[in-house]
Amino acid sequence: MDQVRLALGIVAAVLHGLGYYLYSRHTKLGQSTPNIASWSIWAFLATINALTYRVMSGDPAATLQFFMGSIGCMLTFLFALAMGKFSWHKRWEHWAMFILGIVATVVYYRFRNATSANMIVLVAFVISFIPTLEGVIRDPFVEVPRSRVIWTVAYMITTMNVTLNPDWRLVSLLMPVVMVVAHGAVAVLSTDTRKARFIQPITR
């Protein structure tokens, strides 16, 4: 494995882990209130994503961030559960994410099709951002942008890392590029500049 690509993979993974640490810190301080339904499903999806992306891409360096993501999701879920700082808002997106996660698991383990399974997980991740984006558009105080900025940068590094692989495929770019756009959008929508336009957080 190219040493430069390995180094980039490690940097992306470390940044990804740092983002989860900061998110958990915000949760402890009461600045973030994770939806326990979303995070439990994300922990499941992130694990399937890491496994299928590794097989699909054949790129262990670019996959390091995704394995860190699966660990981070699980630890964030358990931390929020232990702290008791969570909300439980069941929406259609949660059921869609869960069902797609099951379908992706079956496609991967039964039919051994990692690419199709990873694309199904990607659709589930896109759906999972719908309530997040709706919430932050309505009230930017529901998010602290720092973690989102770090995750965006980490996915940008992974995107670059994929293109440095001489055997890279277009399908390997889809997951990191979509995550750059999704996390970047949440970060922009929750900036202090946008919050300044709101007198106070909207009462929910």
Notes on the structure:
This protein starts with a helix and ends in a 9-residue tail after the last helix. The chain is an all-alpha fold and 204 residues long. It is globular, with a radius of gyration of 17 Å. 78% of the residues lie in helices and 0% in strands.
Structural features:
0% strand, 204 residues, mainly alpha, globular
Quick structural summary:
It is built from eight helices and no strands. It is mainly alpha-helical and 204 residues long. It has one domain (3-195).
What portion of the residues fall into strands of 2 or more residues?
under 5%
Radius of gyration: 17 Å
* Total individual domains: 1
The topology string of helices and strands comes to HHHHHHHH
Termini Cα gap: 50 Å
The helix tally amounts to 8
SSE diagram, text form:
Blueprint: H1 3-28, H2 36-57, H3 60-83, H4 92-111, H5 114-138, H6 145-163, H7 170-189, H8 192-195
